[in-house]
Design a protein that fits this description.
The structure is a single chain. About 30% of the residues lie in helices and about 25% in strands. The relative contact order is 0.11.
Amino acid sequence: MNVCAGRREQAGRWTDGEEVTMRAQKKKVLVGLVISLILVALLFRQWTPRGSAVGDIQNVIVSIKEKLLKTSLQNLNSYNGSIPYHLKQTGAGSTAKNGCVCEGDAWHVDVPFGNLLFSGVAAQNLGSANGASEPDMSQRREQEFQSFLRRSRSAADILIVAEANSPLQYPTQGVEVPPKKSVLIPGLGLRQKARRLYSVNLTASMGTFDVVATVKEVVVRGEGEMHLNVSSRLLSALNRQLQFVTYTNELFHPNTADVVQFGTVGFQAAFTIKIRHQIRPKLYDPGPRGEYNISALVTIATKTFLRYDKLQDLISSIRQFYPTVTIVIADDSEHPEPVTGSHIEHYIMPFGKGWFAGRNLAVSQVGTKYLLWVDDDFIFTSNTKLEKMVDVLERTTLDLVGGAVREVTGYTTTYRHTISTEDGGEEGDCLHMRKGFHHVLEGFPNCVVVDACINFFMAHTDKVRQVGFDPRLKRVGHLEFFVDGLGSLHVGSCDDIVINHASKIKGMLPFGQSSSDKAYSKFRYHDKSNIQNTLYYFKNHFKCITSGS
């Protein structure tokens, strides 16, 4: 790299004062460069993309990524190969090794309701159970995971660091172009000391460059091509010409990015141009302004199976407080019974289709901005204020807000959880679920921000559809929805919005069961498939789970 470019030469020789000054400047530049490259190396050690060669546009992205990594490592070796380093054993050091450990408490009491009586952290190793049960499952999982990475990652995910003391000026983020369209590239410039000729190069892999105007005393080569050279003897003229450079996407993809190489003599930089369709909003008409019109804003959705007595109690309680709100019911009973009434939609499914499949069906029929999910054995009370839930969603960035459920014993629960993941390398990642919350929701002292809440919640309809419910979860499932939504769902929980829960105790005791209770219990509580762990292992690429308080 030419760190002496632009030095002032006098009669072919430097004065002693100028020589000392330039040596000091050169030393500062080299020290800054060494520090920058060390930081680049540490960042690259933490971000280790997985995957083999891929096709189509991703081939271009992978090759660019490998080239950037190779160049950075070469520069690093050139300047600080002799500097020793030591990785920490905890904190950032352990993260850099991509070796999360799934460990729970050493002791465990396996008794009924033990999780309520004794707090602690439990751990499950998913790999040994699921991988061993089917020899080629881990291989299939890895193939599917690599395919997921190729679909979900683009060049916009590549870490690009603009080195210090570079004369190049360029946009680091924020440049977007629709597929097969053109855009002016803002912010291009050169800040270089006096020299005989100024020249910059632009190189792309998914589009071409052009100029919408020309400037005198500037030579432009490569118009309409993937490589553009702009040169001039006047720096001001060259910078003026750079204001008119355009990028045109040539290779169609609905959502990806092109890495543009931008360089001059002795300096090289890179930035991304996002290529994607403009995301269109999905808006709902709330009706005339004023008090919240719950019937126009909210649809109540539920899934029922055999328990028509409890479903009727739920409907009666809803109608007591919200007589015109639409209720959508998904029903996979073997012998469906008619459920009729004003503003009721009853959808029959194949027998035993399942819990999450029913959720999908019910949600698919919601036509309002928000949906309220309730179980079929819940009971509305005067404390079940849907207006409060709407108010939270209207005034915050939350996608989903849960309430509280009061049992017949008087105990009220919100079932709040925080969820996090850790990179675990080739064997899979670690899923950590803890009871608790992140912080109080500003403006709502009874509400907190969480990652998962109870199965009494109101949400933006489109956000729930975006995440969806895995239909393979037929009998048991809840937290799996929030795990699938991690990173896309912003979740809250309020303890002052309460719904009652019909007693489960009578239905679980043999001498207190009705025929429908017995049939329901046979399906609900006798599922030994352990499908949740299999999905966590394969679909979500986890190797273990820790959970506790």
